Amino acid sequence: METNLEKAQRINLILLQEIDRVCKKYRLNYYLICGGLLGAVRHHGFIPWDDDVDIAMTRKDYETLRKIAKDEWKDSDFIFVRHNDMKHGAWLDFFDRLVYMKEAVPLKTFEKIRGKGRKDIDNHVPLDIYVLDHAPDDEKKFRRMYLAIQGLYGLAMGHRAYVDFTEYEKQDPRLQKQIKALVYCGKWIPLCLIEFVYEKICRLYENTPGNDYFTSNGFIFCIPMRHKREWFAETTELNIYEHKFKCPKMYEEYLTFFYKDYMQLPPEDKRKPDHVIM
Questions:
Q1: Taking the model in full, what pTM does it have?
Q2: What is the DSSP letter of 172?
Q3: Using an 8 Å Cβ cutoff, are 202 and 95 in contact?
Q4: DSSP state, residue 267
Q5: pLDDT over 90 at 199, yes or no
Q6: Distances (CA, A) of 104 to 122, 128, 277
Q7: Directed axis angle between helix 59-72 and helix 4-25, to 10°?
Q8: Are both 54 and 186 inside the same structural domain?
């Protein structure tokens, strides 16, 4: 019998094949990143215990995908879910997602909006889409930019059904207090206003590219990370099982930045899925 992890991985492959199909149709670039890229390089498939998959797109290609998504996936097994479309004033994060709706898997992915946000996507496997926005070369300007986005992230967290502050217990105590204050204040600020300001800040340097990208819609502590534009200047194709998907041509540099000795397996107690309920 298929386990929940095996089912999630099978659906992840379906999602990757679908995003690959649509991107080829509209001549858009995407890049397999994070655990999906590591799995392709180290395992020539998924990491055996990994249960999700992520891609990145430049702002230009992402905006095109966003515009064609509604018509492309109308009346299909997939829906494209915007980060500001969690319904009923709920907010999860700044990711857009392609969600596979044909099968359900017990997941923790959407638990932070349960009881408040939309119910249709709960327990359905998503593919997360990171946006590569331009980071200014001036470090002071970039610092102001990412601090503003992190602040907006904290405010938007006030619109979750609940917030798990234990996620931040390893952070500096002062930072933990700041996050709690942002969450409390965010409850009283309209989510549409937070989203509007967020979109404006992310695109501040859209027409003045520098040497780096950053993932403006990433997890709150990942936003300050700079990604060299040269890593994404060209693509190559790597296998996940017998299927080929686009990856940064300089994937070794990317993986070394994130994982250091990326061919080394983690300790056994770390080899477990993050989202699937086993």
A1: 0.95
A2: -
A3: no
A4: P
A5: yes
A6: 8, 17, 12
A7: 100
A8: no
Residue given tokens 């064609």 in the structure block = 68
On whether both 90 and 46 belong to a single domain, the answer is yes
* CB atoms inside a 10 Å sphere around CB 66: 15
b/e 123-144 (16+ beta carbons within 10 angstroms → b): bbbbbbbbbbbbbbeeeeebee
Do 167 and 99 lie in one domain? The reply is no
Name the percent of the chain lying above pLDDT 90. 92
Query: And the tokens for 14?
Result: 């379906």
Sequence-distant (6+) residues with CB within 8 A of 244 are 237, 238
**Judgement on whether residues 36 and 151 belong to the same structural domain of the protein:** no
HSE-CB at 175 with a 13 A cutoff on CA atoms is 11
Cα–Cα distance measured from residue 123 to residue 106, given in angstroms and rounded to the nearest whole number: 5
The answer to the question of residue 13 being in a domain is yes
Cβ atoms within 10 A of the Cβ of 252, count? 12
Q: What dihedral angle (degrees, nearest 10) is formed by the CA atoms of 153, 158, 163, 165?
A: 60
Average pLDDT over residues 224-251: 96
115: CB partners within 8 A, 6+ apart: 161
pLDDT tens, 19-62? 999 999 999 999 999 999 999 999 999 999 999 999 999 999 99
Give the number of domains in the chain.
Answer: 2
Q: Considering the domain boundaries, does residue 218 fall inside one?
A: no
Q: Is 246 part of a structural domain of the chain?
A: yes
Q: Contact, 201 vs 172, CB < 8 A? A: no
CATH of the domain at 41: 3.30.460
Joined tokens for residue 79: 């829906």
32 and 119 part of one domain: yes
- Domain containing residue 89: 4-133+227-270
